[in-house]
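Quick one: structure for this chain?
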Amino acid sequence: MEHLNWGYIQLGLVALIFGGLQVWWISSVFWRRDLARPQSGGEFRKSLERIWKKEQRQG
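Got it. Here's what it folds into:
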């Protein structure tokens, strides 16, 4: 009976890992899709300001 329980534990671990990888993959696809969309004028200005602030700190 012990080996039967160990098999269920292994199956559960594989299912958890597989589910985690699916969540990670789907979220990365949506994140890339969000980055690919055109920015509004305000969003573009804010992103440029962040880049300029980063460059001023480094240089």
